[in-house]
Amino acid sequence: MTDRPIILGIVGDSAAGKTTLTKGIAQFLGPENVTVICTDDYHRYDRKQRAELGITALHPDCNYLDIMQQHLSQLRTGQPILKPIYNHKTGTFDPPEYIKPNKFVVAEGLLGYSTRGTRGAYDVKVYLAPPEDLRIQWKIKRDTQKRGYSEEQVRAEIVKREPDSEAYIRPQRQWADLVVSFYPSTEVIDGSNGHLNVRLVLRPNIPHPDLTQVVSTDAVHSDSAIRLGLDRDMGKPVDVLEIDGHATSDQVTKLERFICSDIPNLIDACNRDIHSELGTVTGTTGETLRSYPLALTQLLIAYHMLKATNVH
Ligand SMILES: Nc1ncnc2c1ncn2[C@@H]1O[C@H](COP(=O)(O)OP(=O)(O)OP(=O)(O)O)[C@@H](O)[C@H]1O
Ligand SMILES: O=C(CO)[C@H](O)[C@H](O)COP(=O)(O)O
């Protein structure tokens, strides 16, 4: 059993779903055990300076990646940090805050895997890769509703950022242990976020649960709502688990029980009657939607965090 904090990285472009995914993982692990930091706090310039310099927040030069790496290393050894705070409402920096790591630390942000040093700080690395049109839809909704931008401003910013997304954000996918892509089913016509499917790329860097015991890998069952197969991702062989948004409660429960049975700490956490927030997302009109694919993704990541506590 390790006595140092276990560090999870969640990396992806702006509005790729990092905060949404993190919320449920913390529920599985017990919110009181989890410290969440957002690496946007390591921006080097405030919003006005970025505009003057013509640099985007996605460029490595626009971030103190060295200090971020130092802080991740300190958190990994259980030491406290004095973390800067970037305020998304004002576009400026607030006074720094004192952070003492809990048993688990989730570091979510844009450039978490961009240097060898930062990559070495994590026990589990997740990359979020929704299709670009879905991410843009999410970003417009979030930035207009919560960050005070107009739709035109968000669209213009996305265009300005695209070269940096391509050069610095998307290549980080290669370093992830799990690549998570929520995507709409071709059959869904209401555009409801609650029924998105998920495609999980499982790289052999970390030991995944042997899902072949509960999920069919047989091509005959390729129309099943939960599927496991082999593929290549960025040229390397990977396992791929797909869960459809219309998977039934019975199908989901079977997979959930199998993952939980391996880790006693997860048995209670799997109880959806106790953890009502698992797999929930806010819909376009502010309503709460429940997503089995999201809940299972959060469970699988929590599984890896708990496994890591025994490995070290
Ligand atoms: N799995 C999901 N299913 C449905 N909707 C989602 C999902 N993930 C994210 N969203 C939608 O996308 C919006 C942006 O997600 P979120 O805030 O989690 O992104 P983020 O990556 O943390 O963004 P940023 O880094 O820019 O702060 C959310 O408000 C939510 O509406
Ligand atoms: O991509 C982002 C991650 O959340 C933000 O847009 C980035 O942090 C810059 O902030 P702002 O939009 O407040 O200028």
TrEMBL record:
> Could you tell me which residue ranges the Phosphoribulokinase/uridine kinase domain spans?
7-187
Keywords from the named record: ATP-binding, Calvin cycle, Kinase, Nucleotide-binding, Photosynthesis, Transferase
**Key word ATP-binding present:** yes
Which pathway does this polypeptide act in?
A: Carbohydrate biosynthesis; Calvin cycle
What InterPro entries does the record tag this protein with? Answer: P-loop_NTPase, PRK, PRK/URK
Q: Supply the CDD domains for this chain.
A: PRK
Q: What class of enzyme is it?
A: transferase
* Keyword Kinase set for record: yes
Q: What is its EC number?
A: 2.7.1.19
Q: Give the Pfam families listed for this entry.
A: PRK
Instruction: Enumerate the catalysed reactions.
Output: D-ribulose 5-phosphate + ATP = D-ribulose 1,5-bisphosphate + ADP + H(+)
Protein family: Belongs to the phosphoribulokinase family.
- List the protein's name: Phosphoribulokinase
